[in-house]
Request: fold
Amino acid sequence: MHTIARNTAWSIAFVVLTGCTHSLYHAELDTRNSEEFPRKTVLYWSKTDKLIGDPKTGPILLMTACSTRRVHFDETEHGVVFRGTPGQDRIPGQPGTVAEGTICGNVQSDRKIHDLQAGPLSLTVHCEAMTDEFSIQTGLFSPSYIQAREEPYRFDVQEERSWSVLGRTPDAPEPPACP
Reply:
């Protein structure tokens, strides 16, 4: 009888120590890319709250239809930002490429990814992908992402919550289909 009680106690302890609540946050928005083509954009991130231990979050990923690039918004001392990549991004109307560490976008809704919830989320994009002659000619798959603009994009974020033992995470959304 003691063996059954001990095994039950160990089983309960195992579930408590390894159990997690997973939240997948996602939103879609119809936008234009930096080449002026209408494109669907998907924004998502995940959050894992462990029963015991520190929660894990992010990064926030932005995928635009027909793009070969995923834009990462990471938590920094400046808030949740997207840093441009020299040789790949530029500020519209300016010659050349961005400098290392240039902030090309930010989430205006909060300063920490873990604090973000379902509901409205505002983010800005100040840069655009540098394209070459080949990507402009094909017009389909290019490195471009959503168009840079002054006013923020507004996403209506939904949450899908699940619980698991041993840390199985929910599947990330698929990139939007290219029309």
